[in-house]
Amino acid sequence: MNWVTKTFTELHTQELYDIIQARVNVFVVEQDCPYEELDGKDQEAIHLLGYQGTELAAYARLFLPSAEREHASIGRVLVKKEYRGTSSGRELMTKAISVLEGYQQKTIQIQAQYYLDRFYRSFGFSPISDVYLLDDIDHVDMLRVQKETSHA
């Protein structure tokens, strides 16, 4: 998969359309979850796009810490249906973590759908909340703290 990171202002119109279409198809249509997909946060995000050829196959939205957010975070994690089961999700998360670590971020938070708990734990995320209902889907907040490497 070919990976690209862009800020909102770097996105071309077609890229933005492809992102919105993929997010609506996965989070609203597939999960039968009507919610406000366009939340006003895309403008401050780093957009991670994974392409298979010229087609957007995987996507995540990354944030650095800010006044509203104590930790870096990863959200809107998706792999299009036709690319699932091909390790694209694992590749996406590995790349997302790597991008944030490139910004010297050692602590990353996610708001995970609970059924993916084991998947996210495999990347070093640990639950920091009880399971809660969000848009009729069980979620759990998780945190990943990069381990310090010793230079002995």
From TrEMBL:
- Classification via PROSITE patterns: GNAT
Q: Which GO terms describe its molecular function?
A: acyltransferase activity, transferring groups other than amino-acyl groups
The protein's superkingdom reads Bacteria
What are the N-acetyltransferase domain coordinates in residue numbering? 6-147
Q: Which keywords are on file for this protein?
A: Transferase
Q: InterPro entries from the xrefs?
A: Acyl_CoA_acyltransferase, GNAT_dom
Question: What is the official name of this protein in its record?
Answer: GNAT family N-acetyltransferase
